[in-house]
Amino acid sequence: MSVRIDEVDRKILKELQQDAGQSLDEIARKVGSSKTPVWNRIKKLREAGVVGQETVVLDAEALGFEACFFVLIRTSEHEESWQKNFLNVLRERPEVQEAHRLAGEIDYILKVRVKNARAYDVFYQALISEVKIFNVTALLSMEEIKSTTMLPL
């Protein structure tokens, strides 16, 4: 479904990206509209798939997840059955926050959040026991400089 997005929709989307928990009254006030039209627009954007799952952002370090690894994976396997198994394994691993298939020498990159290096090793050992992988390189993030889910609307 295709949806036309006007300037008011963009303002609403910006507000939702900032804080999806704010009330309809607050959003309406900030975008210069009233509650019912804002609700109708949000509903339209949800139905069109523009607005997806609403969630909260947790502080990983405050919860003890102090290590973030970017895992570069090269594989010699490119059959559909291998890919299906690999994707299923990734979906089942809660440590994997993001997974991307890449163009170039590296086939996949994962963002893995764990408590420490020992926890990463447990993840790594489980991964290579479940899926045949040619090469794995793990890069430890020393500092998160910027992280956002917000689109530049």
TrEMBL record:
Residues 5-66 form the HTH asnC-type domain. PANTHER family: DNA-BINDING TRANSCRIPTIONAL ACTIVATOR DECR (PTHR30154:SF17), LEUCINE-RESPONSIVE REGULATORY PROTEIN (PTHR30154). GO terms for cellular component: cytosol. Gene3D superfamilies: 3.30.70.920, Winged helix-like DNA-binding domain superfamily/Winged helix DNA-binding domain. Signal peptide: none annotated. GO terms for biological process: regulation of DNA-templated transcription; response to amino acid. Pfam families: AsnC_trans_reg, HTH_24. This is Lrp/AsnC family transcriptional regulator.
